[in-house]
Here is the input.
Amino acid sequence: MAEQFKNQGGVATSEPSKFVRWLGSKIVPRRVSLDRLLHARRKIEKRRIKDGKPHRVEYFHQVDDPYSHLAVQVLKPLLEAYDIEIVVQLVAGPAGKNLPEPELLPSYARRDCEQVAPYYGLDFPKPCQVAGQEKMALASRILAGAVGKDFAAVAMAVGSALWRGGGALQTLAENNEPLAQIETEKLVRQGTERQLELKHYSGGMFFYGGEWYWGIDRLYHLEHRLIGLGVAKAEDGKLVVPRPAIEDGPLLDDGSLTLEIYPSLRSPYTAISFDKSVALARKVGVRLVLRPVLPMVMRGVSLTREKGLYILMDSAREARELGVEGFGGMYDPIGEPVQRGFSLFPWAREMGREAELLSAFLHAAFFDSINTLSDRGMRQVVENAGLPWDEASAILGNRDWEAEVEQNRLAMYEWDSWGVPSYRLLDKFGETVANFWGQDRLWVVAREIQRVLGKVR
Here is the structure.
């Protein structure tokens, strides 16, 4: 399997030099530090006041993006809750290396929105129907005609029609004059260029004061920031879209359900959520199965500098919100260190310490700035996992793990997920109940467990 995927080089390299790894260990902690973030925010706010500008939020809407349909439903509530302006930009969405699995994303995004929309109290049909290209083009023209007007109301209606097959779009077009195709394309091009200028790539995004907020899942970060600036119209501190809590009860399982977790050893998102994921499974009593996969760039998935930086910054703020302290002490484990870590996984599983091994490795690589390329670093990992180094050192670097890890990757792709951490919940018959991608879906995993246990009882 090591020969199956080639080193991509550049920012997506899986073979950085020892110097580059060392240099990164010095740069990343400073880049993601809270002090640096707050300093940047103070400078931006000082400049805004000096220039006499309002609190302006830019929202980037993508017509064929399910997450944009969820996001647009909270535009009016945000305007009602905060003294802000919202400027709408239409965008084409990710492309090229920012869209590594174009054949998987659309179907996964639709299913994900179907699953989370009810928990947020938002509209997304289940099952949804995908409109054809002609209706999609008409929807774009209607949206373009609504920019600068009552965009939120029109976009909600367009999205509602679009994800139900598009049958109601013609009536919407009669009541909301569409823009000409050439003018629509111009607006989308301008919005996309604006987003690229601000160094992002996805639809359903919010931008304010130098920072990006992805859809409804990151709005609470923006809301906390606005409240801190005194922009909230009420003083009760309530959020329009609060982060849902991870519920580990009240119902408990006896091992009838199985929770599969698909982690990698070079994922910041895995690093900040792995311990909480394992703790949830153990607290609720579901059977826990760990199915590790190679990091994305080690299996041919592209990565851009903009995307990599966003992931690091986003992981840092998510860690702070989750109460996970110390994230950012990173010593990049890509390549050989990851392989060394995985070479011990089957053995650690035999010892009943596989979760502890992965946890110790992630803490070394993302919290403690430990060089896992060295034997000294790996010894710390092994001993922190409660395992004997003398046994580990004798098998370190074997390749017996490769077939299993590749099998895990293929299993994950079967349900349109290519990123980590991913989760799959199975019933007592081994049938899939639900599957999710992302540390920000752990709360949904927890609630699905409670829902299934409630039905059983």
User: Anything to note?
Assistant: The domain at 258-456 is CATH 3.40.30.10 (Glutaredoxin).
